[in-house]
Amino acid sequence: MRVFPIDGVATTYESLTTATAVGFTSAKILPVTGNYVGKQARAVLISVETADIRFTFDGTTPTTTAVSAVGHLLRNGQSYEIFGEENVAKFQCINAVAASGAVVKCTFRF
Predict the structure, then answer these.
(1) Which of 41, 71, 90, 93 is the Cys-Cys partner for 108 at CB 3.0 to 4.6 Å?
(2) Tens of pLDDT along 23-42?
(3) CATH architecture label of 10-109
(4) C-beta atoms surrounding 50 within 10 Å
(5) Do residues 34 and 110 lie in contact, with contact meaning Cβ atoms separated by under 8 Å?
């Protein structure tokens, strides 16, 4: 198991369901209350539960499994960290298979 240094302060959390392609809630990326108003999240830890997902962070919309599926595959039980303000803002995810109901847990760092 690879261990990464923690950079930034974890301040907010959300849970995404991925029946369709979704990104992070804008108020989580750019808080409107609290100590980080006016600052943008610079990293987000995502953990996948229930079913696999496909994700992108370049502005491309991910698609479900098919001959030409779009996005990186992240399996149920795996975690991944998105670094960089622009990558965080452009993140999107969807169920890897159209019939599954994946849940993505997200912790934002500033």
Answers:
(1) 41
(2) 999 999 999 888 889 899 99
(3) Sandwich (2.60)
(4) 15
(5) no
User: Please, where are the H alpha helices in 4-84?
Assistant: 26-29
Which residues does 58 contact at the CB level (< 8 Å), separation at least 6?
87, 90
- CA–CA distance, 10 with 59 (Å, rounded to integer): 24
Question: Six-digit token pair at 36?
Answer: 């980080």
| Three-state secondary-structure class, residue 35 | coil
How far is C-alpha 96 from the chain's CA centre? Answer: 14
Neighbours of 46 (CB within 10 A): 20
The continuous run of DSSP H or E covering 102 comes out as none
- Tell me how far the alpha carbon of residue 3 is from its chain's centroid: 19
Whether the CB-CB separation of 59 and 88 falls below 8 Å is answered with no
